[in-house]
């Protein structure tokens, strides 16, 4: 009888301990697993999730707007450069990959249009920038030989 009483008491103790420990373990795991909502890198990761892509684009754009306001609209501010180093390439890849609804696609185009042209161009092209206006050589604006000569086509090559 004493053994049965001890066994029942032990089971009750373990049950009570488990009922307290389990929620604490879940809360602890949730705290550790939470992403930092104020970190742009968190939102960059969410660009890969179709369910969170639109919100991630919106939030990353908001980071940029907020940081530009803090920096006095100085795009050369180190905080702006650090943010853009983190987000431009993934945002550009998201745009190129497609599959966005019209509103999200337009929001993303606006964001990419707001950043400096150099940063956007670097993100779009795997090749280094060129220092001569090659596009003007083949431009329809220089359709005739006289126009190409006047534009110094050979001097640009």
What does the average pLDDT come to? Answer: 74
Task: Please give the largest β-sheet.
Answer: none
Residue share in helices? over 70%
Order of helices and strands: HHHHHHHHH
Q: Give a count of the beta strands, DSSP E runs of length 2 or more.
A: 0
Through-space gap between termini: 102 Å
Shape: elongated
Number of helices: 9
Summarize the structure.
The protein has 157 residues and is an all-alpha fold. 71% of the residues lie in helices and 0% in strands. The chain starts with a helix and ends with a helix.
Task: Describe, in plain words, how this protein is organized in 3D.
It is elongated, with a radius of gyration of 29 Å. Helix content is 71%, strand content 0%. Helix 3 (53-70) packs antiparallel against helix 4 (78-97), helix 3 runs parallel beside helix 5 and helix 4 crosses helix 6. It is mainly α and 157 residues long. It has helices spanning 2-33, 40-46, 53-70, 78-97, 102-114, 117-124, 134-137, 145-150, 153-156.
List the helices and strands and how they pair.
Elements: H1 2-33, H2 40-46, H3 53-70, H4 78-97, H5 102-114, H6 117-124, H7 134-137, H8 145-150, H9 153-156
């Amino acid at each position: 009888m004493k053994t049965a009483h001890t066994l029942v008491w032990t089971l009750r103790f373990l049950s009570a301990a488990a009922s307290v420990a389990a929620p604490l373990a879940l809360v602890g795991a949730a705290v550790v697993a939470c992403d930092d909502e104020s970190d742009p890198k968190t939102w960059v990761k969410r660009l890969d999730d179709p369910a969170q892509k639109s919100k991630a684009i919106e939030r990353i754009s908001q980071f940029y707007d907020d940081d530009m306001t803090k920096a006095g609209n100085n795009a050369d501010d180190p905080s702006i450069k650090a943010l853009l180093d983190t987000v431009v390439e993934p945002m550009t890849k998201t745009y190129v990959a497609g599959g966005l609804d019209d509103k999200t696609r337009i929001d993303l185009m606006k964001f990419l249009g707001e950043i400096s042209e150099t940063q956007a161009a670097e993100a779009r092209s795997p090749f280094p920038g060129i220092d001569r206006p090659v596009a003007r050589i083949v431009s329809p604006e220089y359709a005739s030989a006289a126009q190409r000569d006047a534009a110094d086509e050979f001097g640009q090559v």
